[in-house]
Amino acid sequence: QGSKEGSFLWMVKRDPPSYFFGTIHVPYTRVWEHIPNNTKRAFRLSDNVFFELDLTDPYTVSALTTCQLLPRGKNLSDVLPGELYTRLKRHLAYVKTQMPRWITPDQRGRGLYADYLFNAITGNWERKRPVWVMLMVNSLTESDIRSRGVPVLDLYLAQEAERLTKRTGAVERVEEQCVPLNGLNFSQV
């Protein structure tokens, strides 16, 4: 039924029915108008909503931050080749000079300034594992910066579920997300 509407919503036939929906980690405003009505209706009618991770839980957010760090006493400069580390530092310095041009008037009106966003995104980068630095660098684009302050689809749905007093939870733990990424070797990253 969902495929006719171009939906990624799956229904598990039981009483009451259960639904499975695959989300993507992008600002919800980029995709919300394209989410089919059957998906929005299933969300509205659901009593319980479970996400990949509970992004509204402070422990989850803290654990995600911690899992990104190299072992105690290690820095990125210890694990990256010198030339690559130097290129990374230069690139981050360049992005920092460009970010003021990328900030939207709406963001400024909400107190999101370039220095604040740059520090929020890149904070403690020299202590992070290479895979997480790669993901961080990939998010330092004009379009991604312009959408900062808008929750990703998962978080938006979680916030809506809480607002509507639905029971929420997660199907994975932070460790289940971190272990595979942290297990990648340098050449894979």
From TrEMBL:
<keyword id="KW-0645">Protease</keyword>
<dbReference type="GO" id="GO:0006508">
    <property type="term" value="P:proteolysis"/>
</dbReference>
<keyword id="KW-1003">Cell membrane</keyword>
<comment type="similarity">
    <text>Belongs to the TIKI family.</text>
</comment>
<dbReference type="InterPro" id="IPR040230">
    <property type="entry name" value="TIKI1/2-like"/>
</dbReference>
<keyword id="KW-0479">Metal-binding</keyword>
<protein>
    <recommendedName>
        <fullName>Metalloprotease TIKI homolog</fullName>
        <ecNumber>3.4.-.-</ecNumber>
    </recommendedName>
</protein>
<keyword id="KW-0378">Hydrolase</keyword>
<keyword id="KW-0472">Membrane</keyword>
<keyword id="KW-0732">Signal</keyword>
<dbReference type="GO" id="GO:0030178">
    <property type="term" value="P:negative regulation of Wnt signaling pathway"/>
</dbReference>
<keyword id="KW-0325">Glycoprotein</keyword>
<keyword id="KW-0879">Wnt signaling pathway</keyword>
<comment type="function">
    <text>Metalloprotease that acts as a negative regulator of the Wnt signaling pathway.</text>
</comment>
<dbReference type="GO" id="GO:0046872">
    <property type="term" value="F:metal ion binding"/>
</dbReference>
<dbReference type="Pfam" id="PF01963">
    <property type="entry name" value="TraB_PrgY_gumN"/>
</dbReference>
<dbReference type="InterPro" id="IPR002816">
    <property type="entry name" value="TraB/PrgY/GumN_fam"/>
</dbReference>
<dbReference type="GO" id="GO:0005886">
    <property type="term" value="C:plasma membrane"/>
</dbReference>
<keyword id="KW-0482">Metalloprotease</keyword>
<dbReference type="GO" id="GO:0004222">
    <property type="term" value="F:metalloendopeptidase activity"/>
</dbReference>
<keyword id="KW-1133">Transmembrane helix</keyword>
<dbReference type="GO" id="GO:0016055">
    <property type="term" value="P:Wnt signaling pathway"/>
</dbReference>
<keyword id="KW-0812">Transmembrane</keyword>
